[in-house]
Write a structure and sequence with these properties.
The protein is an all-alpha fold and 430 residues long. The chain contains 17 helices and two strands. Strands 1-2 form a two-stranded antiparallel ribbon. It is elongated. 45% of the residues are buried.
């Protein structure tokens, strides 16, 4: 029996809510153990939430809108939460807090740090909050009972094997978070799970590895030097966070420049308003459906945004910018001119190749070019029919009739599935 897309998300939310309620209730009933430690780590996590770089994108936003580290908008808070979950000693004295207190402190501190962001309308996404609660709970469940019972000391001691145990546990926690994040996105979008998981695992190599390493080092440093180690060890991650934020701003400006260049054909009257944005949005969705991820999706999006740039060479605009109805020779000339323009923009050469090969038989094209060609033709044909459901169905039927030479059958069927999930009406203009 198949489950609806929201079932997994509701289960995750329910599990996080139950864990949060039990942790807060249990901590209020039993009181805080070693309140100084709880207050110090709570303040550290709250500061990390205050310093986060913005909320995550909503469901359906193409992943290339963010750099890989954008998946963890509060790395300092995450590192502090993991360090508290793995804290066994403080300045040589054993700690006594348990799993419920760890979760309660993390949730309370995260909520306190998120208040200013929520007031500005940029609070953390619910998916992110639920994952944070469950992953921190996982780490605490794996560590605290073993430590408090003395089994961990008997098994691994307090030397190098103890540090190795923390690192292994953090890696497992990060993997669980990646699996959970990919599963939730798959449940929402129905994109293939494999590419989504690859994107999450790729993100772990960026800020994810820094968060895990900092969490382990902080737990070990506090065990030896006490709570004064917290401000010392937050400096490297804060500096890394500032560097990543600047790089993300550069990436955002770079993409905005490409979007502005793509709109030149609309402003000049060569294409319909919003055509490039619609083709880019549908192309990335189809690319996800076909298993593309990471850099391949970025190339696909940039090529889809700039696929019509060659029309600026035309003396007379094509009616409604519908190049799919032109003779093949004219389509190829426009594509080659567009590729020449794209090569001057500094984008990866693979983007220019996709643009240049728009008019070639699909068997000679790379997959991104096949996707852009089919989606561009769909938008031209459906837009020319007034954008109605009947026009969309007619456009898909024409694409299916052209699968002998012009359009790859798998791409057309993937496009049909994407449209079926979101309705058969074309993507509205921006």
């Amino acid at each position: 029996m198949t489950t609806s897309p929201g079932n997994l998300v509701r289960v995750v939310y329910a599990a996080a809510a139950l864990l949060t309620g039990g942790a807060l209730g249990g901590t209020l009933w039993q009181g805080l153990d070693q309140p100084g430690n709880a207050l110090a780590f709570g303040a550290f996590i709250a500061v990390g939430e205050l310093a986060r770089w913005g909320s995550q994108p909503g469901v359906g936003v193409p992943p290339m809108r963010l750099a890989p580290w954008g998946r963890e908008p509060a790395p300092l808070g995450a590192a502090g939460a993991l360090a508290y979950a793995l804290l066994g000693e403080c300045a040589g004295r054993p700690t006594t807090h348990g799993v419920l207190q760890v979760v309660a402190v993390v949730v309370a501190a995260a909520l306190a740090g998120a208040v200013p962001h929520v007031a500005r309308g940029s609070g953390p996404a619910l998916d992110h909050v639920a994952r944070r609660v469950l992953t921190v709970g996982f780490a605490a469940v794996c560590f605290q009972p073993l430590y408090n019972s003395g089994e961990l000391a008997r098994w691994v001691g307090h030397g190098a094997y103890y540090a190795l145990f923390l690192l292994v546990l953090l890696v497992l926690t990060a993997l669980c978070d990646a699996v959970l994040a990919a599963a939730m996105l798959h449940a929402r979008t129905r994109f293939p799970y494999g590419p989504l998981l690859r994107d999450e695992l790729r993100a772990l190599l960026g800020i994810g590895s820094a968060v895990c390493a900092t969490g382990a080092v902080m737990a070990l440093a506090v065990a030896v030097a006490g709570l004064w180690a917290l401000p010392v060890f937050c400096v490297p991650l804060l500096l890394a966070q500032l560097s990543f934020r600047r790089y993300a701003a550069v990436r955002t400006t770079y993409r905005q420049t490409i979007v502005s260049l793509a709109r030149a054909t609309e402003i000049a009257g060569y294409t319909q308003p919003g055509h490039a944005r619609r083709v880019a949005a549908l192309s990335t969705a189809v690319g996800r459906e076909l298993g593309l991820s990471g850099p391949d999706l970025t190339v696909l999006e940039y090529a889809a945004l700039m696929h019509d740039i060659g029309q600026l060479s035309l003396v007379d605009p094509v009616p409604e910018g519908a190049t799919a109805t032109l003779p093949v020779a004219e389509q190829r000339r426009i594509a080659l001119l567009g590729g020449a323009v794209v090569r001057q923009t500094g984008v990866p050469a693979a983007v220019a190749v996709v643009v240049e090969m728009q008019a070639d038989p699909y068997r000679e094209q790379p997959l991104p070019a096949r996707i852009v060609r089919a989606v561009n033709a769909y938008d031209d044909l459906a837009g020319g029919s007034g954008g109605t459901a009947g026009g969309a169905l007619s456009a898909l039927e024409q694409l299916r009739l052209g699968t002998g030479r012009d359009y790859q059958p798998e791409v057309v069927e993937s496009l049909a599935r994407v449209l079926a999930r979101g309705g058969l009406a074309p993507v509205p203009p921006g």
